[in-house]
Amino acid sequence: MKTAIIGYGKMGREIEKILLERGHQIGLIIDQENASDLDSKHLQGIDVALEFTTPQTAYDNIRRCIDAGVAVVSGTTGWTDRLEELRRYCQEKGGAMFYTSNYCLGVNLMFRLNRQLAAMINRVDGYDVRLEEVHHTQKRDAPSGTAITLAEGILSELACKSGWVNRMAEPGSTFQPAPGDDPSQIVITSIREGMVPGIHTITYESEDDRIELKHTIKNRRTLAQGAVVAAEFLCGKQGVFSMDDLLK
């Protein structure tokens, strides 16, 4: 498989290592200094591009790959208000695209457990729910895409919640409801601390007990490996895919 890496930061470098370990070829690396090289000419012969950049550039990067007839795997978060638009565009062009907010297998298992737990809580009632996500200080978007996916999973099953709101907090702080919090909204607390790859915690609390569902990523390698596996899955296909399709 001949690949392109779009975004050569820490994640891009981890992806590079795993691609080479698995016997794949890297035909193009795009970063800020050569962003203009992301075109049909430079993408010629590329099977799959792996895109991990910024919320400001992801949409255009993915669209350029689709226009060049190159399958693209993206894990950039913070821009998904335009994701449906891009999915439709990909289908219209007969392209191939894979998107998920988190490529860690454990997180994707958590997505499923999260929906199941929310459905059970909906039947018994009496619990309120909140989310907390902790990431490194270089993460530019808040809340994380993973936290948004978790919130959407809860909203799909829990009748008493209709949306979510985000609140930034300092490291080490404990959750305290804010005056005027709308009880129909899930509060997502975002903390930016050190070099934390990612911690997501869902808490259900009643007057008598507390239930926590928590996932901790130990390093970026698990994310990079998931992205490469997604690229292998996508290679040679047409259509729009997610981790649900891969796990099936």
Secondary-structure topology with pairs:
Layout: E1 2-6, H1 10-21, E2 25-30, H2 40-43, E3 48-51, H3 58-67, E4 71-74, H4 83-93, E5 96-99, H5 105-124, E6 128-135, H6 145-155, E7 163-169, E8 185-192, E9 199-205, E10 210-216, H7 221-234, E11 239-241, H8 243-247
Parallel strand pairs: 1-2, 1-3, 3-4, 4-5, 5-11, 6-8, 7-8
Antiparallel strand pairs: 6-9, 9-10
Brief synopsis:
The chain is of the alpha/beta class and 248 residues long. It is built from eight helices and eleven strands.
Summary tags:
248 residues, alpha/beta, Rossmann fold, Dihydrodipicolinate Reductase, domain 2, 2 domains, six-stranded parallel sheet, five-stranded mixed sheet, 8 helices, oxidoreductase, NADP
Your description of this structure?
The structure is a single chain. The protein has 248 residues and is of the alpha/beta class. 35% of the residues lie in helices and 25% in strands. The chain has helices at residues 10-21, 40-43, 58-67, 83-93, 105-124, 145-155, 221-234, 243-247; strands at residues 2-6, 25-30, 48-51, 71-74, 96-99, 128-135, 163-169, 185-192, 199-205, 210-216, 239-241. The strands form two sheets. Strands 2-1-3-4-5-11 form a six-stranded parallel β-sheet, with helices on both faces. It has a five-stranded mixed β-sheet with strand order 7-8-6-9-10. The longest helix has 20 residues, at 105-124. It is elongated and about 60 Å long. The two termini are 22 Å apart. The mean pLDDT is 94.
The CATH superfamily of the largest domain is NAD(P)-binding Rossmann-like Domain
CATH class of the largest domain: Alpha Beta
Helix content: 25-40%
* Distance from first to last alpha carbon: 22 Å
Query: Helical stretch count?
Result: 8
Radius of gyration: 19 Å
Global geometry: elongated
For the record, the count of structural domains works out to: 2
* pLDDT < 50 stretches: none
- At CATH's second level, what is the architecture of the largest domain? 3-Layer(aba) Sandwich
Q: Biggest sheet: strands, sense, closure? A: 6 strands, parallel
- For this structure, the CATH topology of the largest domain is Rossmann fold
Indicate the proportion of strand residues: 25-35%
Spatial order of the strands forming the largest sheet? 2-1-3-4-5-11
Order of helices and strands: EHEHEHEHEHEHEEEEHEH
